[in-house]
Structures are given as C-alpha cells and as structure tokens.
Specification:
The complex is a heterotrimer of chains A (about 525), B (about 150) and C (about 45). Chain A is mainly α and about 525 residues long. Chain A is built from 23 helices and no strands. Chain A is elongated, with a radius of gyration of 28 Å. In chain A, helix 1 crosses helix 3, helix 1 crosses helix 4 and helix 4 packs antiparallel against helix 5. In chain B, strands 1, 2, 3, 4 and 5 form a 5-stranded antiparallel β-sheet that branches. The chains are: A mainly alpha (about 525), B alpha+beta (about 150), C little secondary structure (about 45). Chains in contact: A-B, A-C, B-C. Chain A: Belongs to the CNOT1 family.
Chain lengths: ~525, ~150, ~45
C-alpha cells in the first residue's frame, strides 16, 4: 500500500533505478560487475533503502511499478516499432532483474540460504501482486510483456551456473512454481499465453523435471499442469474452439508431447489427477497422457497374434499413482459403506443408493461428480486386484466375476443413464495404459462387462468408448489396443453379431479396417 | 453423450481476457536474452542455400578449419553461444590467448624479452575488433592476472 | 480425429531429448543450435 510510503522514496527509487539501468547497459563486461554492484549497494545504503525490511519491500514495489508504467508508456507510443518497443523495455527490465539476481545471490551470509530465498519470495510476491492489480485495473487492455520478461529473465539469471545458486535449486524452483501457481490462467487469464511460455520454458522443464534430485520437482510441475487443464476445461468441453483457445490448446499439446517424449514416467505417475481435470471429450489430449509408459519397459506389439497378456511379468506390478484419489471418495460414511460392502456385500441397500451418491444435479452434461466416479472405479478395482492376489490368483475375465467389486461395476453399468455410464466406462478406459496390474484388471473388467451385459445398449456404449479413443490420431495407449483387439477377435464376445457393428456402411468399414490391421 | 455445456459467467470473463491477450502474444525472443546479432526468428534464405547444419558443425575440429578472421567474427558476434565457445577453443589451439582486461586476443609474435611469473613483455599480434584487423604491439606487457 | 501431432513441429522420433531445444508452446519448430544459450566464461560476454 504505497500511500504510506515515506516521503521521497519514490524519487529516490526512480533515481537509483535509472542509475542502475544506465550502469548495466554500459558495462560492457559483466565479469567486472562485483565492483560495480558493491558500489551501487553502498549508494542504496546511503539513500537509506536497505535500512529496514519494510523499506526494501517498498523499494522493490516502487521500482517494479516504475518498470510497468514504462512498459505501458512505451507500448502505447505509436512511434515505436514492436521491436524497438521490446528492446527499450528489455533494457530496463533486464537491468532491474539483474540487480535483483545480484542481491539474491549476495544477500545473507554465505551458506545461509534463507535470506536469499526470502528475498526472492518477497520480490516474486511483489510482482505477482502488481500483476494481479494491473489486470484488474486494465482489464482487456492488460499488457503481459513486462511481467513475462521479468519472470523469464529472473529465472534465467538464477539458473545460470553458480555454485551458490545450484545448492538452492530446489528452493528457487519451489519459489517460482508457487508464484506461477498463484498466477495460473484461472486467476490471471490475461497472462495465460505468457504463463504457458514460462512453465514450458526448456530450462524450467529441464530443471524441475530432470535436474532436481529424487524427482522432487515433479509434484510442483504436476500442480502447474493441473492448473492449465482446469483452466482449459470449460473451453475445451465444447467442440467448437475459438482461435484463442485453439492456440492455447495446441501449445498445451506441444508441451505434453515433449513430456511424453522426455518424461513419460512423470505422465505415468500423475495421470490420474490429470484425467480428473481433462474434460472427457478431450480424447486425443488424454491419449497422450495415457499412452506414456516407462522408458525401460518394452511393450510387446499389441497386434501380435495370440499375445498372452496375462503372461507378461509386468501385469503383476501395480503402477505408481501419485494422487491421493481415495480422498475423493466422499462423504466419509459413503466410503465406510463402500468398504463394508466390499468386505461383506452389506449393507444390501448400498448398490441401490450408489447412483444417488454419484449424481449431483439434473443438468444434462454435468449430472455426475466425475472425480468421485474416477476415484470409486480405481479404488474398487485396486481392492479387487488385491483380493484376487490374496488368493494367489492372477485376475482374468472369469475370476473377477461374482465378487462385490464386480457387483458394483455391474450395477453402475445397468443403473446409470447414458451420461453416467459414459463417465463410468471412461473411468475404466482411463486405466487401460501400459502393461501393469491395473491395465490388466480393467481390461478384463470391461470385457467382462461386455460379455455379461444384459442389453445391447451397454455393449454398444462400451464399444463407442473404446472406439472413440482409437479413431483419433495417434498416440493410442497400449492397454486400449489390446483390449479392443481382444474384443473383436475373441469369438466369445460375438462382437460381429451385434447390429450396432453394422448400423451404417462406414461403421462396418471402420471395424473391418481395424480388424484387418490386427488380424 | 455429454453434449455441450454453456460457459459460466466467470468463464466468459476469463475468455474475454484470454481473447484480449491473444492479440499481443509473447514472441520467442521474449524468453531469451537480448541478442542483437543472433535474431531469434530465422531469416528465410533462398532454397538453394544450405538449409541444414553441416555434419560435425559443432566440434572444435570443424572450427579449427576456419580462418582466424572467421573465428574472431564468431567470437565477437555470436556471444553466449556454443559457437563462441568453440571459436575460443580453436583460437587457443592456434596459440591465441584472451586478455580479459582488454577483451582482445593476443598471440606472441616472437619469444618475449622478459618472462617472469607475473607477466611477459615482448611483441604481440593482437586482434583489434574495432578496426577489424590484426596489429602488432611492441614492448607490450602481458600480465598473467588478466589471462582468462 | 484430432490433430496430426507429428505436424506440430516436434521431432517425436528423435533419440535426443526434446526439451533442451524446445522453442516454446507457440513455436512450430525447435531451437537451432545458435538459439540455445551456452555457458561461456563471463569474460566472453562483452556486449
């Protein structure tokens, strides 16, 4: 709140900032900067800026505000070409950022990181605050350039090779990730494109996903991706994509492809939370995540004739799920009833009440609690697997039947309306990924549901859910492929006898072409 | 089967902001250090120019086959890039030494008259990047403390 | 059918990691070698 800034602070700040900017832009050899920096710090001291923590805060806020005002002035000056405008702006902001980086690097005693990180968090917090205020103030006239430049350059400065900074890498990444989370597009829509640039910058990705030991950066990055998916969801939820959405969506696909190629394990571990946030109709984007598999894993060609999936060693191991999805099974008494039903098939009323827990409204298209549905399906499935394993069996399409677990799935398949059943089948299909115990179990489960279905509508919908994931452009998850191939090849499912397979010539042609490619 | 879902009011507002942002998008150069000589966006060149990098272009051996002037050009105009680094390496292999005080490259012209462990004094060839030519400097004292 | 993801400017068959030369979500081709900063001794940064 700058109204109670001490008198003269603004002028002092302006003078010091201008002074530093000119020093920075004239010094033609950054390697001699320590001398320059120390003398500048003395000047700051002389002006009483460093006297108290509060004054330091005000100085940074004032300096940031000066830079941002400059950005608007330069951008609104028609005599500047876009390149000229950028160059002028960057001269100021790069200099200011460099000062901050030097202060962070030299603040506090050597070996005591807290002062440094506190200062960094303070500055990030100030810029964040000014950005959000600015966005309120300017609305659709908001300019992201200054802030984007500030964050990217400060990050690059603090990522340059330096023993002190290297030791602080996790704290620095945490500070930036938290700031970006607080700046996520749902809160700062005017900053959304710059934000995606920031969180997908190659050095940011390199550090947070590859260089921080023990994958400690992964939860931080998963939060940012969740922010992005949640922001995009309402816009992607409807098939028509406006140009601004298309661009952001395409950008997101690029980022996901980089992650799929370089960090598939990350997508594997966090897939569940991502699928919660991604709208069910975003089939291709979700497939990119579901298609990920650990790099040390060799996937057998799903089209191999007589592939014995249940003989694969990997089907015995459970995939890592970095999401406390069980928490989504609310309320607590529902979870209690669920557990008791799984244990003893009681209370008998549990099944009939199931739908009422899942349905949250009568609004078509948003009747159900999707995270609850997803969590329920995964939880029941994992309980089924451990139940069967406890009897030293490997799950298959026959021994998963006649259990409390399958009761629940059968009930959901029969009792829900088309919308609910679609979400239920999606929840299962989201587990058809690389060879692991979940893929194997859910593959058996969906095939079992198909075989035991008492109405063709259920069989058709199972087919639709699988097919819509197959006809989009690649990639396709391995588990999806082997499940569908089994469905159309294994005569016990009498797949070709169903008239929905022949309901239109192009549909029949489609099935035949898929069949040809796998038979 | 889910059909469409109309946007809530706050989503409409978010969309409006996104749309406004769409008209002043970041450019790739915004995420890079200012680099006057190496523009970020590639300049389209005639198709019959080589469009691909030459094989082994980023090795010291490759740079050692370049002329000394070319190495100086790369060193001064491609600052902060791998090319600059490799050009410096190649120059060193040709007995050029970088003097950090003058930010110029020097090469011994003859055996120096005085050599002790602080400096050596003699005649040097240096590269004057302002006049862009090699020059000779007699009686020059090359202080080791400025040796990069 | 969604996008043809091979047309987004990423070399998905590359043996090398993609992220070191990733040019950003809105660029449709990766960074060239000269676009990627290299750690050179600060004495070389003469401006």
């Amino acid at each position: 709140n700058d109204c109670d800034d001490p008198p003269g602070l603004q002028e002092k700040t302006e003078f010091l900032l201008k002074d530093w900017v000119s020093i920075y832009n004239q010094s033609n050899n950054l390697s001699r900067e320590t001398k320059i920096f120390t003398s500048f710090v003395q000047k700051m001291n002389m002006y009483g800026i460093l006297k108290t923590d509060d004054l330091i805060t005000r100085f940074f806020r004032q300096a940031t505000q000066i830079c941002i005002d400059l950005v608007y002035r330069i951008l609104n000056d028609p005599s500047n070409s876009p390149l000229q405008a950028r160059t002028k702006i960057f001269h100021w902001i790069d200099a200011f950022v460099h000062l901050i980086a030097l202060l962070v690097r030299h603040s506090g005693e050597a070996g005591n990181p807290t002062t440094k990180i506190n200062l960094l968090n303070k500055v990030l917090g100030i810029v964040l605050g000014i950005l959000l205020q600015d966005q309120e103030l300017h609305g659709t006239a908001f300019q992201q350039l200054g802030y984007h430049r500030f964050f990217v350059m400060l990050f690059l400065e603090l990522s340059s090779p330096d023993a002190v900074l290297e030791s602080l890498m996790l704290s620095i990444m945490t500070a930036f990730s938290h700031t970006y989370h607080l700046l996520n597009p749902a809160l700062a829509p005017g900053f959304c494109y710059a934000w995606l640039e920031l969180i997908s910058h190659r050095i940011f990705i390199g550090r947070i996903l590859a260089q921080i030991p023990q994958q400690k950066g992964w939860p931080l990055y998963s939060q940012l991706l969740l922010d992005l998916f949640r922001y995009l969801a309402p816009f992607l939820r409807n098939a028509e994509l406006a140009k601004p959405v298309q661009l952001l969506y395409k950008g997101t696909l690029r980022v996901l492809l980089v992650l799929l190629h370089d960090f598939p394990e990350f997508l594997c571990d966090y897939h569940f939370g991502f699928c919660d946030a991604i709208p069910p109709n975003c089939i291709q984007m979700r497939n990119i995540i579901l298609a990920a598999f650990p790099r040390n894993m060799r996937l057998p060609d799903p089209f191999t004739p007589n592939l014995k999936v249940d003989m694969l060693a990997e089907t015995a191991t459970a995939p890592k799920i970095c999401s406390n999805y069980v928490f989504n099974i609310q309320p607590a008494n529902f979870k209690k009833d669920l557990d008791s039903y799984l244990k003893a098939r009681a209370p008998v009323t549990f099944l009939s009440e199931l739908r009422s827990h899942l349905q949250i409204s009568n609004e078509p298209g948003s009747r159900y609690n999707i995270p609850l549905m997803n969590a329920l399906v995964l939880y029941v499935g994992t309980q089924a697997i451990s139940h069967i394993r406890s009897k030293n069996f490997v799950p298959n399409t026959s021994n998963i039947a006649h259990s409390a677990h399958m009761d629940i799935f059968q009930n959901l398949a029969v009792d829900l309306d088309t919308e609910g059943r679609y979400l239920f089948l999606n929840a299962i299909a989201n587990q058809l990924r690389y060879p692991n115990s979940h893929t194997h179990y859910f593959s058996c489960a969906v095939l079992h549901l198909f075989a035991e279905a008492n109405s063709e509508a259920i069989q058709e919908q199972i087919t639709r859910v699988l097919l819509e994931r197959l006809i989009v452009n690649r990639p396709h998850p391995w588990g999806l492929l082997i499940t569908f191939i089994e469905l159309i090849k294994n005569p016990i499912y009498k797949f070709w006898d169903h008239d929905f397979v022949h309901c239109a010539p192009e549909i029949s042609r489609l099935f035949e072409s898929v069949a040809r490619s796998c038979m | 089967p889910l059909g469409t879902l109309p946007l809530h009011k706050d989503h409409q507002l978010q969309f409006k902001m996104m749309e406004a942002a769409y008209y002043h998008l970041p450019t790739p150069a915004d995420s890079e250090r200012l680099n006057i000589y190496l523009p970020r966006t590639p300049v389209p060149t005639p198709q019959h120019y080589p469009q691909q990098q030459l094989p082994l272009y980023d090795t010291v051996e490759f740079y050692q086959r370049l002329s000394t002037e070319t190495l100086f050009f790369v060193f001064y105009y491609m600052e902060g890039s791998k090319a600059q680094y490799l050009a410096a390496k190649a120059l060193k292999k040709q007995s050029w030494r970088f003097h950090t005080k003058y930010m110029m490259w020097f090469q011994r012209h003859e055996e120096p008259k005085i050599i002790n462990d602080d400096y050596e004094q003699g005649t040097y060839i240096y590269f004057d990047y302002e006049k862009w030519s090699q020059r000779k400097k007699e009686g020059f004292t090359f202080e080791y403390k400025y040796l990069e | 059918l969604g996008n043809d993801l091979t047309g987004l400017g990423l070399n998905l068959n590359s043996q090398e990691s993609l992220h070191p030369t990733f040019a950003g979500p809105f660029a449709d081709h990766p960074c060239r070698v000269q676009d990627v900063e290299c750690n050179v001794p600060t004495e070389y940064l003469i401006n």
